[in-house]
Design a protein that fits this description.
alpha/beta, six-stranded parallel beta sheet, 7 helices, 6 strands
């Protein structure tokens, strides 16, 4: 079994108190855990993919424009990684096991090279971390399921704006997608 961690949208705009589309405190409290999961993967020789939302200023055609305020705009500090994940990425970005991929839709698979990279590296299990549990993490899990990957969701390394949305997404991933819900302490590589 070869695993890869997907760190989804853990950026200033989604996490910082002054972020443009922030989950606020629920996302901030998982900061250390997300970085710990990435470090644990690194030490085990696994891959880490930072899947980061990117939008263009003034894009009137993207469907999210009608649903959410502008966020993760290309060239802004809103796309910077939040907390210790930023340091982890900066320390390991030159390696051949840590990647940054821009994404433009909820799912990390939609319009990206993610599936190709994973298959080239013989990855069969995805470990999901990041925000928002009920949007980008959930949609990534759906596409992972449809592409035949095993899914592990690190429950103390994902967050959403409300606890109800968070819990709905976790239960959906477990009951409908067969995802394994685990804590960061239970995670093994």
């Amino acid at each position: 079994m070869t695993k890869a961690v997907l760190s989804i949208d853990y950026t200033r705009d989604f996490v910082a108190s002054d972020g443009r589309l922030t989950a606020g405190q629920p996302a901030q409290v998982i900061s250390e855990t997300i970085a710990t999961v990435s470090q644990k993967a690194w030490e085990a020789g696994a891959y880490v993919f930072f899947m980061i939302d990117e939008h263009l200023e003034g894009d009137l055609y993207h469907p999210e424009t009608q649903l959410f305020p502008p966020h993760n705009i290309s060239g802004t500090d809103g796309r910077y990684l939040y907390g210790p994940s930023k340091e982890f990425f900066e320390e390991h970005q030159e390696s051949n096991r840590v990647y940054w991929m821009d994404k433009h839709y909820y799912s990390a698979f939609a319009g990206t090279m993610l599936d190709i990279y994973l298959r080239e590296r013989k990855v069969d299990t995805l470990v999901l971390t990041g925000v928002l549990t009920d949007i980008c993490v959930l949609h990534t899990a759906i596409d992972a399921y449809q592409n035949g990957y095993k899914i592990e969701v690190v429950t103390d390394a994902v967050a959403s704006i409300t606890e109800a949305q968070h819990q709905f997404a976790l239960e959906h991933m477990k009951d409908v997608l067969g995802a394994k819900l685990i804590s960061s302490e239970e995670l093994e590589f």
